Amino acid sequence: MRVTVRLFARLRDIAGTGELERDAPGGATVGAVWASLVAEYPALSPYEKSISCAVNADYSRFTAAVADGDEIAFLPPVSGG
Amino acid sequence: MVPLTAITTAPLDTEALVGALDTTGIGAVTTFIGLVRGHNLGRQVLHLEYEAYEALAVKGLDRIVSESLEKWPSARVAIHHRIGRMEIGEASVVIAAASPHRADAFAAARYAIERIKQIVPIWKHEYFEGGDVWIEGATADPDNAEARAQALKIACA
Fold first, then answer.
1. What crossing angle do the helices spanning B54-71 and B102-119 adopt, rounded to 10°?
2. What is the CATH number of domain A2-75?
3. How many Cβ pairs within 8 Å bridge chains A and B?
4. Which of A46, B64, B142, B149 is the most buried (most CB within 10 A)?
């Protein structure tokens, strides 16, 4: 299946893009999508413990399953205000 | 019609935000305006660039309004956050809170800014004398009850 990955702030800088299309095996979790991203961009690795994730613009968890066409977002610690 | 919550690249209008609140039965309105500061952690700040995951950020602001009404049922809260490039002294966020009595209006506004810093996917990119840096604050987790309790505690202090 095909998913869209959205990256923001420092994560976007590391990957050099804010949006990627990637293949994911059926039954893959958000965590698996992150792991394949880290394999591609090892500099993302230190963020593993501090990021949040969202699926289709709702906060989610690394254990959540993803579906074909989902938008998966990885969010570094926020700093609004 | 001004929406109660918004993420916008346009300069913020505090008066319009106050005007968005239903003030029937209201005796107090407080506004909080967050400004771009010219210095941070010893650095001379030149300007800031704010980025958001807009679809989720608006939901985050809506959630903060709902949480405020849960805690202060007679209060009304509106929040607009600006994104994009901002110069020193410009407003990055405006919160308007109204309630029958002043205590709840002050508390709801304070609660809202604390929660924005916890759960709304917005990031500051600081450009300073000699470099630039992404500011990273809290790991966003709306279901973290401890963080929410902490925001309430600050609001009610």
1. 150
2. 3.10.20.30
3. 90
4. B64
